[in-house]
Amino acid sequence: VAKDLGLELPALRDRGVRLFDTGRTQFFFLDLHNGHLSMKERVDREEICAAVAKCSLNFEILVKNPM
Predict the structure, then answer these.
(1) Which of 35, 37, 38 is nearest to 13 (CA)?
(2) 23-43: buried (b, 16+ CB within 10 Å) or exposed (e) per residue?
(3) Are 60 and 20 in contact (CB under 8 A)?
(4) Closest Cα partner for 30 from 20, 41, 43?
(5) pLDDT digits (tens, 9 = 90+) for 40-58
(6) What is the CA radius of gyration of the chain?
């Protein structure tokens, strides 16, 4: 994420970068030490999207201070 945003690692903390899952369950986390977006736990596709053929998990990354 740091690389995609064009930020150095210290800037992630300085700019108050936060990750929000749009659903009820938090599936992702942003590691502020290495800038990687990772899964919080193993995801069971059948449990989340059993009734739909196309499945996606949405999230937002917010940066407090202007870029």
Answers:
(1) 35
(2) eeeebbebeeeebeeeeeeee
(3) yes
(4) 20
(5) 888 888 888 888 888 888 8
(6) 14
